[in-house]
Structure formats: C-alpha cells, structure tokens
Amino acid sequence: MYKPFIATLLLLASAGSANAANWPLEIIDHLDETKIVVYVKEADIERAPAWNPEAGAPPFTLGDLLRSVSEWEKKNAGVTRASIRKIELKPILHHEKQGRWYYLVQLREQREGKAADRYLAVLMNGTMAAAIAEPASYK
Questions:
Q1: Hey, what's the signal peptide range on this chain (predicted)?
Q2: Which of 47, 61, 69, 122 could bridge across to 103 with cysteines, CB 3.0–4.6 Å?
C-alpha cells in the first residue's frame, strides 16, 4: 500500500538533489548603466582564492587578467578586433564574507562596421564565467 508512495517520494527527492547541483549561481551586477548577469558555478567560486582588500593586492593581478583575456580572445574565433573598454573589481554577491571577488571586463569589438560590447567575468584564479548584458525590457 505504501510502496508506490515511498518509491515516488524517493524518486522526487533524488531528482531534486541531482538537479540542484547542476544550476549555476546567477549574479546580477551593473557596469555603468548596463545590467550584467553572470552565471558561475558555486564550485568555481569555492576554488578561487579569497581576497581581503585591506591585506594587499589581489591574488590574480591585472597582468594576469590581461593575459587571460588575451588567451580567451585567441580561443574564441568569433571575437574580432576586441579591445578592453572597462575593468571593474567587484565582490561576489552573498560571498563577501568569504572574501570572494571577481573582475568584470567589458570588451568592445567591431561587427559589420558597428561597435558591439561583450562581457567577461573572471574569478581570482583565472576561471572565466559567462556574463551577458540583460536586454532592455519592452514596455
């Protein structure tokens, strides 16, 4: 009598826990007037070193960041003539107490004669995370 109920309950519990591990953390941030959404795995955040601004320079320096962005551009053939427009060092929302920070990079590239922006989020160990500009809502 209870076997189908228990089997269903166990199936739902295992599916829920497996599904929860696959979703990345969504960080909503701003760069100037643009809302940026960053998707990063919790495990990647935990692997990145912590940093306290009062203790000195970040563990992932600006030189390291520039090298990482350059390597990323070489690996992504769709990126053409991109130049770094802006870099901001930001705390990761809800991870400030653990000292988790990342660089938000705005790239400007020319596509078909028009300027287009691309965004990268780079953790303190060089891990790149997906970042997109949230489109303006329709009214």
A1: 1-20
A2: 122
